[in-house]
Specification:
This protein is an alpha/beta fold. It has a single domain, classed as 3-Layer(aba) Sandwich (Rossmann fold). The chain contains 9 helices and 7 strands; from the N terminus they run αβαβαβαβαβαβαααβ. The chain has helices spanning 4-22, 38-49, 65-73, 88-102, 126-153, 179-197, 218-221, 226-231, 245-252; strands at residues 29-32, 53-58, 77-82, 107-110, 159-164, 202-209, 263-266. Strand 1 (29-32), helix 2 and strand 2 form a beta-alpha-beta unit.
Amino acid sequence: MLSRVTVYLFSKLLLSGVYVELFSLQGKTVAITGASSGFGHHFAGVLANAGASLILGARRLDKIQDRVRDINGSGSRALGVALDVRDPDSCESFLSTAQKEYGNIDVLINNAGVEAGAKTYAMIDEEDWDYVFDTNLKSVWRLSKMYTQMKVTAEKKEGNIVNIASITAYRTIKGQFPYAVSKAALVKATEIMALESAKFGIRVNALAPGYILTDVSRLLLEGERSDTFVKGIPMRRYGQFDDLNGPLLMLCSDASKYMTGSTVVVDGGHLCAEL
């Protein structure tokens, strides 16, 4: 007869194995836009470590070659493809290359995003507006539409789209127009896409990071107003890339197989804080 301690340890090992498998991406292919830096660059490493094969898209192919080389050198598999998300032909080529190389795309991560600087609605011009909306919103619609059509045509039963939103979709702050507007629209687009794609077996969710320290955000978040920003976060610290790992793996894996139309906020409680 096994002792209680032995049974307990065996149960823990069994459960840990189940949980690891639940979040595993072994045998799955993930396509990531905007993979040359920031979130996309980090996501590539996390998903490769979870067993995924990757296709990484960026406007400048030279900027993702080191990442591709590192992933392939670690025993995982990655392919870099030049991608301008504002160009329909480039988007089609990106997805068709992934399908040709891997046979199937299990997850599409719409990560590419830009902003127009610290400008109010009265300061931006039409070029700013089009640049941000074409990248942050229109490209998501375009790539998701192409992805869905590929799935339906190939009679693939399941698909998964993860859109990278932002807490600016919910938090009203000055100087983030039109970035915040594009992200708010993306959250609503996620909900509608989820509703309309469910019949095809395609899930659509979003990840909304809060104040995460990146090479770009450090200029603002660690500047003169740093103390003010941090005090607005209940956990009293900025987020790190690694804080997104768990939610990302959940959304990309079977751990979220009954989730669609949801936006997962990772912000240290920022949205709960008093204004």
